[in-house]
Amino acid sequence: MEELGEMHMDNWKTYLAPLGRLLMSSLFIWAGIGKLMNPSGTAQYFAHVNIPIPDVMVWIVIIIELIGGLAILVGFKARWVAAVLAIFCLITGFGVHLSAGDYPNMVNFYKNLVMAGGFLYVVAYGAGAISVDASMGTDKAA
Questions:
Q1: Buried b (16+ CB within 10 A) or exposed e, 117-132
Q2: What is the reported pLDDT for 105?
Q3: Are the C-beta atoms of 70 and 24 separated by less than 8 Å?
Q4: Phi-psi region of 53 (alpha: psi -120 to 50; beta: other; left: phi over 0)
Q5: Using CA atoms, how far apart are residues 110 and 103, in angstroms rounded to an integer?
Q6: Number of CB atoms found within 10 A of residue 44's CB
Q7: pTM of the prediction?
Q8: DSSP state at residue 95
Q9: DSSP label at residue 49
């Protein structure tokens, strides 16, 4: 009887991994597109929150968010991309959103920590069975 439960859970894992990747990647794809639609406004915001070389950083962030988000979505080089996005979330959280007494920014700080945790999970366990990595045979955990 226990074997049936394990088989059932394996079926769920097959579909939960890509759903999780979709949910995690959606924020980055959406944010990247938003920044791409208004790079000068984003650079102004970056300057306001003291991000160095904001006119250059806006393009680096757009690339990280769009390429990283799309790679996580389809599960391509997911472990490496997830590691980059986890670091990105931690840098953004501690560098931009950690502002004592500013409740909305603290919410964003903790959201960044949670996203970093989710990406570390992808680093540890891979993209799952329905992914480019699995189809290429490069994800041993899939």
A1: ebbbebbebbbbbbbb
A2: 81
A3: no
A4: left
A5: 11
A6: 13
A7: 0.87
A8: I
A9: T
- DSSP-derived letter for residue 52 is S
Are the CB atoms for 25 and 70 separated by under 8 Å? Answer: yes
Tell the residue number behind the tokens 């389809």, with chain if given. 74
Could you tell me if residue 75 is left (phi over 0), alpha (psi between -120 and 50 degrees) or otherwise beta? left
Domain parsing of the chain, residue ranges: 15-136
The pLDDT profile of the chain, 142 residues, written as one tens digit per residue, is 455 556 566 778 889 999 999 999 999 999 999 999 999 999 999 999 889 999 999 999 999 999 999 999 999 999 999 999 999 999 999 988 887 778 888 888 999 999 999 999 999 999 998 999 999 988 765 4
Compute CA 79 distance to the chain's CA centroid, rounded to the nearest angstrom.
Answer: 11
- Cβ–Cβ under 8 Å, residues 31 and 65: yes
User: What one-character-per-residue DSSP string does 114-139 give?
Assistant: HHHHHHHHHHHH-S-SSSHHHHHT--
Which amino acid appears at position 101 of this protein?
G
Residue owning tokens 């300057």: 47
Tell how many helices (H) and how many strands (E) occur in the chain: 6, 0
